[in-house]
Amino acid sequence: MLAAAAVLAVPALAVPTAVGAASQSAPSTTAADLPSGNTAYRTLADYEADLAELVADHPDLVKPITLPFPTTSGRTVRGVEISTNVNADDGKPTFVDVGMHHGNEFPSGELTMEFAIDLVQRAAAGDREVTRLLDRARVVVVPIVNVDGFVRGRRQTDTNVDMNRNYGLGWLPISTGGAAAWSEPEARNIEWLLSTRQAVVFNTQHTCIQVVLYPPLQLAAGPAQDVDRLHALASEVASIYGPGYKALPSAEDYETTGEAIDWAYYATRGLALTSETCPDAGVARTYGTQVLDVYDEHREAMLTMLETAADPDQYAVIDGKGPKGAVLRITKAFDMYTSPYAQPDGATRPSSFTTTLTSDLTLGRNGKFEWAVNPSYRPIPAYQEDGIHGFQTGFYEEPWILTCERPDGTVLQTVPVNVDLGETVTVDLKECRREFHQARP
Ligand SMILES: [Zn+2]
Questions:
Q1: What is the residue range of 217's domain?
Q2: Which of 15, 182, 296, 320 has the highest count of CB atoms within 10 angstroms of its CB?
Q3: Beta-strand relationship, 138-142 and 78-82
């Protein structure tokens, strides 16, 4: 009787959902099912439940991330980190993928969340391609970075700021830019994420245009130093999404200021992309056309970004052998500048802010490590202390400061490391090994 009742209950529950999905996705019926099986947009509770379930069901593959700053209205911003043996401190290169800078761009959160579920399902099922990628790289996924905006179904945060105009590099006090560069906790969360993760590739997902954008945001800045690499990845991703999609510098789509990708690239030298998906002109914007019909291409696009993050030509490596249990830390801190704007004293000049990049690695087993990091050579941005200097072609020679520490933070050895893309630099940590094993005073 119980079994029969359960069988009967299935169509009764499923029919309304299926009917709704079919009517929403009327223009195309070719889309495959989503990894989650969903047929409608998630609520915030649905996102939180899905993230928690991934962690609970696959603790070796998925670990939770809580971003450090609650939103203006006190909500928590959550994500997950996905990799083979995710809890190991193994120095793998990282792909950071985030959705919903704009709280009303619901498909951007759905696509981002579905990719996380997809990766985990495929890895758990032994899919070869995904397993190979997750053996070599980490994926950090934060589906909703502007949680307040999402809950209210609007673009801005609860301070009425477009968080994708609030990042510090080149920031201007436009009406939606916030009271100051980095005034919004939502933008500072992404600053934290990228300042601590050595992301080789950073993707921020949006709707609704058919473009894949890369820095810079302003034509006056001139081409990014890594324009060839940026364009190669963006155009590969654009071609996956479809023939209508273009890859171009953000400034050539339209000029803006204070967006995530500009700060991300010029601070970390990670490849930073804004991916905007949208149905073709004339096609109604529904869950079906914006999520179901796009997802298969989105998966391929994200796997391409992950493949790029896992490519040794796209990052630098620091390797060596230190004492087991020691903490290695790489740090660099530098000033960056907003655009010039009218200051309270009446003068027009940029404001400065300090970006501090810092990552650490706890040495296990035999103390050997191979650490994928962003290159130490940082692209000189257009925004300078005395204004905008466009068409920069150089890099700052600005070494990573590597410290070898006891777990309590006592620094035993400091080594500056200059390392470029595709290079490996071996550091000699003899001094740290010797000191580490001596009794403490
Ligand atoms: Zn957007």
A1: 29-314
A2: 320
A3: antiparallel
CA of 16 to the centre of ligand 1 (A): 31
Please tell me whether residues 379 and 231 are part of one structural domain: no
Q: Give distance in angstroms: CA of 215 to centre of ligand 1.
A: 15
| Same-domain pairing of 299 and 362 | no
Instruction: Answer with the one of 314, 337, 370 that is the final residue of a domain.
Output: 314
- Provide DSSP, 310-331: T-GGGSEEEEEE--TT-EEEEE
Task: Provide the number of structural domains found in the chain.
Answer: 2
Residue by residue, pLDDT tens for the chain (441 residues) are: 333 333 333 333 333 333 333 334 444 444 569 999 999 999 999 999 999 999 999 999 999 999 999 999 999 999 999 999 999 999 999 999 999 999 999 999 999 999 999 999 999 999 999 999 999 999 999 999 999 999 999 999 999 999 999 999 999 999 999 999 999 999 999 999 999 999 999 999 999 999 999 999 999 999 999 999 999 999 999 999 999 999 999 999 999 999 999 999 999 999 999 999 999 999 999 999 999 999 999 999 999 999 999 999 999 999 999 999 999 999 999 999 999 999 999 999 999 999 999 999 999 989 999 999 999 999 999 999 999 999 999 999 999 999 999 999 999 999 999 999 999 999 999 999 999 988 665
> Which two structure tokens, joined as six digits, stand for 261?
């990708």
Same domain assignment for residues 145 and 255: yes
E strand or H helix at 122 = helix 106-124
CA of 207 to the centre of ligand 1 (A): 6
Distance 19 CA to ligand 1 centre (A): 30
Global pTM? 0.92
Residue 157: inside a domain = yes
Q: From the CA of 102, how far away is ligand 1's center (Å)? A: 5
Query: 354-366 burial string, b = 16+ CB within 10 Å, else e?
Result: ebebebebebeee
309 & 330 share domain: no
CB-CB neighbours of 423 under 10 Å: 14
Domain-located, residue 2:
no
CA of 155 to the centre of ligand 1 (A): 8
Ligand 1 centroid to residue 105 C-alpha, Å:
6
Instruction: Please tell me the total number of residues recorded for the chain in this structure.
Output: 441
Of the residues 314, 347, 365, the one at which a domain ends = 314
Give the whole-angstrom CA distance, residue 140 versus residue 119: 11
